[in-house]
Amino acid sequence: MSSVINVITRNQSLVCPLVPFDPSKDKVVSLDLTDNNRELTEDIVSDTEIFSRYIDQKRSMEGAAYLVGGYNEHRMVYSRSQLFLSGTDGIDEPRCIHLGIDIWGDAGTPVFAPLGGTIHSFAFNNHFGDYGATIVLSHQLEGTSFYTLYGHLSLHDLNMLSAGQYISAGSPLAHFGLPAENGHWPPHLHFQLIENIGVSLGDYPGVCRASEREKYLANSPDPSLLINFK
Q1: Is residue 85 within 8 Å of residue 96, measured between CB atoms?
Q2: What residue numbers bound the domain in which 122 lies?
Q3: I need a labelling partner for 93 at 20 to 30 A (CA). Which of 43, 60, 63, 76 fits?
């Protein structure tokens, strides 16, 4: 287990809900975006509007407030964007391993800081299939530094931010963005834990190549402890 996960585990009582959730009435259902999900065809994932309807219908049928999942998932949906098909390093291998957890819900859903931290950076990654509006928070617990990344947000949420700004645990941070501002995906939050962000600003890979899976998973451990659906 990584040192960051150990620290978060010891401080679990400090973790605030990431999104609004009432365990007495709200339901969360897993969403599988691997090849095992035979419902998902290329026609669905290649068209943002149709893909969004699929997500909405799935939530409605399940009576779910959110569809959740995706950590370390080998996904077929990234074929919809050239962004994932090749790199600038000349290696001909697509990126397909998801490094965070996705929470699929209504556009405009509030996002809260699960732990106190400062604004590390933010950006509008405006490419088809990218994060769209993105925020990165920097945290310290017991002298251990780490980062959380929030992708596919509302562009308006970036307007009042400044690097170094402190955000208290449980404070409003952002909202799920519409497709036009979230990289042209169905509304959702990409949430990722990062141990060492290096020189990245307002961005960090949320999907890696299968050949680099272990390296990236080691730096982006499972962020489930910071979601707090209870």
Answers
A1: no
A2: 3-226
A3: 43
pLDDT attached to residue 89: 57
CA dist 183 and 35 (Å) reads: 22
Indicate the number of domains in the chain: 1
Question: Are 45 and 96 a contacting pair, CB within 8 Å?
Answer: no
pLDDT tens for 90-143 read: 667 888 899 999 999 999 999 999 999 999 999 999 999 999 999 999 999 999
In this structure, are residues 71 and 223 in contact, taking their beta carbons and an 8 Å threshold?
yes
How sure is the predictor about 162, in pLDDT bands with cuts at 50, 70 and 90?
A: very high
Q: Report CA-CA distances (Å) from 120 to 110, 129, 156, 173.
A: 20, 23, 18, 13
144 DSSP β-pair partners:
141
Distance between CA atoms of residues 25 and 14, nearest Å: 24
Domain harbouring 166, CATH code? 2.70.70.10
* N-terminal to C-terminal alpha carbon distance within the chain: 23
Mean pLDDT, residues 16-42? 94
How far out from the chain centre does Cα 225 lie? 14
152 neighbors 176 (Cβ within 8 angstroms): yes
